[in-house]
Amino acid sequence: MGQTSHSTDVVRAYVNSFRGAWPAVGLYYSILSQRDDIRHFNITSAKVKLIKDQLTELLNGYGEVDVLITDGWDAPWRPHHL
């Protein structure tokens, strides 16, 4: 999912460890991203696509996700088409 040279899928490791010890899996996603330069003043169609792709991967690539906590979603700058 991210741009890293690390070969370990940390989301997979996290989800697998929770499935073994807890009855539910929860993930956190921040729409604001310094790594991807997603900030209130520079939203583009390409960045909206990246956000959608990342959320799609989180919700479809790791089995059932019981809770998704988002941050920045209700920011006043959020594009209406997101």
Percent of residues in β-strands: 5-15%
Structural class: alpha+beta
Largest sheet: 2 strands, parallel
Beta strand count = 2
Q: What is the count of helical runs?
A: 2
Describe the structure.
This protein has 82 residues and is of the alpha+beta class. The protein is built from 2 helices and 2 strands. The longest helix is centred in the middle third of the chain and has 16 residues.
Break the fold down into its secondary structure elements and pairings:
Blueprint: H1 10-21, E1 26-30, H2 45-60, E2 67-71
Parallel strand pairs: 1-2
Key phrases:
82 residues, alpha+beta, two-stranded parallel sheet, 12% strand
Overview in brief:
This protein has two helices and two strands.
